[in-house]
Design goal:
The protein is an alpha+beta fold and 165 residues long. It contains four helices and three strands. Strands 1-2-3 form a three-stranded antiparallel sheet, with helices on one face.
Length: 165
């Protein structure tokens, strides 16, 4: 009987197992890096800050205005009679200043009337003229209203109406 020599199995290329294991290692590293990144992201989103909080932006103070009733006053003119009709609001720094102004309103109105009646109408035309007048009114009304009283804390004067006729 003739026997055939035993057939050896075909040799497996030696590079295939090494390539397959390297591919698995790379895939495992990529998956592990992705899992760590996702875990870090979720951890940072849920973590409350333990350090000192950043200073909050300053909250702007609510402005406090005292509105004066409109005033009509004769102005100096040559020839015909002319008048100025003006409405204004005073911006004050606190509620105490507002209360003091309301309490002394007749004195405030008198000071403004005297200041306005001493003007020629030509000096009230431009924007710069009106800004200068507002500053003069602020300075006049900032003076103390009586002996022993502190000066008023008027931040600015705003005109709501301004008619020269």
């Amino acid at each position: 009987m003739a026997t055939s020599p035993p057939v050896a199995p075909a040799p497996i290329p030696s590079s295939s197992p090494a390539r397959s294991s390297k591919l698995w290692i790379v895939l495992l590293i990529v998956a592990l890096a992705g899992a760590l990144a996702a875990g870090g992201y979720f951890l940072m989103r849920q973590r409350t800050p333990s350090g000192p909080a950043a200073p909050a932006a300053p909250v702007p103070e609510k402005p406090i205005f005292v509105t004066l009733e409109p005033l009509t006053v004769n102005v100096q003119s040559e020839g015909r009679g002319r008048f100025l009709h003006v409405g204004m609001a005073l911006k004050v720094r606190d509620e105490q200043a507002k209360a003091r102004i309301v309490e002394f309103m007749p004195e405030i109105r008198s000071r403004v009337l005297l200041l306005l009646s001493n003007r020629p109408p030509e000096s009230l035309v431009t924007t710069e003229d009106k800004a200068r007048l507002a500053e003069e009114i602020r300075a006049e009304l900032s003076r103390p209203l009586g002996a022993g009283l502190p000066p008023q804390e008027i931040a600015s004067v705003s005109f709501s109406t301004f008619v020269v006729q």
